Amino acid sequence: MNIFQIKKHLKKRWRRWRRAIWTASAFCLIAVMAWMGLPLSDQMEKLMAREPMAIETLGKWREAAPDADHAWLLELDEDKSRIVHLTKIYTCGEESSVLGIMTPVEITALMKDHPAWEGRLGAGGDVWIEEKIDGLSDTCKTRGYIGLDKDGNLTLFDGPPKKEKVIRTFFQMDVEMMESALPAEVIQQLQQGIRIQDVEEYNSVLSTFSDFAIEPSERVMQQDEE
């Protein structure tokens, strides 16, 4: 092999190495940008388009990379399966379940099929996903009551208020003001618990009694007087 053939061989090898190094560096850069929630600029895309291998890399990245809301998927280890939890957050109530043990590929596909879902990687390594639903959970449909707890807070109960099985506390009520403004039968109904059967009724009850909610500043004044 003469000197010219050697130079030609080295030049071809260098071009191959340059493309490999450039592509690996570009992929690392856009991975970091996606993890930080930063979009690729037009200048970056034009620069990548100059290299044939970079064009292929960019195309694969656009197809597989998660959006900013799902950037946590980049934290998943390629060879580690994880337990996936799903929490359905209803207008009234919550329901939790375990979807099973999934690989990173399966988790990514799941989130891609449900873009409205929100997820995160927990401290223990499990994946926690939330789905928000406009409606009532089964618990609210069958046993949901809104009433007053012993401290005068408007509260959602699992069953009548007397059972004291609290699902959610909304706000503290000005009971004296409410008793002077509303009919006695309404007050009695609230104390016994108002049965919630649909979203419209749920929102209506909250809207009605929110007029008697104590503002944070008023609570401080009452505590000082006590």
TrEMBL record:
Keywords: Membrane, Transmembrane, Transmembrane helix
Listed Gene3D superfamilies: Bypass-of-forespore C, C-terminal domain
Phylogenetic classification of the source organism: Bacteria, Bacillati, Bacillota, Bacilli, Bacillales
InterPro entries: BofC_C, BofC_C_sf
Protein name in UniProt: BofC C-terminal domain-containing protein
Top-level taxon: Bacteria
Keyword Iron-sulfur attributed: no
Transmembrane segments: 20-38
Domain Bypass of forespore C C-terminal: 136-210
